[in-house]
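Researcher: Before we compare anything, I want clean individual predictions. No alignment, no superposition, just each chain on its own. First chain goes here; please echo the sequence and then give the structure tokens.
Model: Echoing the first chain and its structure:
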Amino acid sequence: MIGDELPEIDKLPKLPPLVEDYIHFADADILKHVLIQAVGRWDEINEEVPI
């Protein structure tokens, strides 16, 4: 959730190459959209299955 500590970078799952390329070549608007979607889904998952 927003404000929680982030996991260590080594413990994050590896993104598929297609997703890495999408993020790498994205402009600011696309990155903003991706981050908003990711945070929203992370919050939903935490509400359904508390860690």
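Researcher: Okay. Second chain, same rules.
Model: Second chain and its structure:
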Amino acid sequence: VSSPQKNPSIIIPHHTPRYTSRVLSEKDIKSTNYDNDPQMKNVMKKFQDRTSERLREYDERMKEKRQKSKEERDKRTQEIIEKDKREKSLEQKIEKGCLKCGLVLGGGVLPVWGMITGLWYATWSQYVAIAVAEAATNAGIEAGVKVGLVKVTEIATQSLIKSGGEIPTMDVLAKMTTGISADNVTLHGIFNAINSAMPRKYDYDTYSLFSSTVQKLAETPKAVATGYATQAAEVTKAFADAKAGVLTQAGNATSTLTTAITATVVTIVVIVLILVII
């Protein structure tokens, strides 16, 4: 083997390099300066734990909201089916009963005429009764929801007055209660309807605090009944008063019209009787 002593052509540097190489090795690329820092590891672990917890909570809320929305849809569908069955049953009973009345009324004078007048009056009465009931219910729903949204806004404002969270406008809240049934026109029912129809983005944008407040009250009906009894009573009263007002007005109008129709029918029957005798 050659050595400097034996081979003078081999030069060995005897000075220290002035610059340190900055070329990264494979090991340096795969690691960071924080891999062995206990404090940074602790911070990253806390961040990951909090993120995972938030995601789990979000998934749970979404599952609950989807389940409640499904239950609400099923309930409304069942209510519509039952209402349709009741109306059909009432329609059949009225038709059969008034058919007999018409036959009895016209039995002594003209059976065919009696049957026609009986069926006509029965059909008219049935239509008026159904139309009036539907109009009264719709008026009650409209009035109850209107008062209910005002109370929801007042309650949310009181809850968020310190935190400064934003509240959706009345028009936006009204759209969330579209299709609410008469049985759900209560303060808690309106909170529940808003919670079911509220977009997911409300959980994280400027309405996040409002969303949390509504969700909490929707899930605790007893808290609404006891903590906001006055507001709940006002919603119920608005629904009942509006419905009763329509029924009263319709009853007065129907009574007057029924009297006029009865007088007309009696007059026609008398004329027919005279013609038969002649």
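Researcher: What stands out in the second chain?
Model: The first helix runs from residue 26 to 30. Additionally, The chain has one domain: 38-277.
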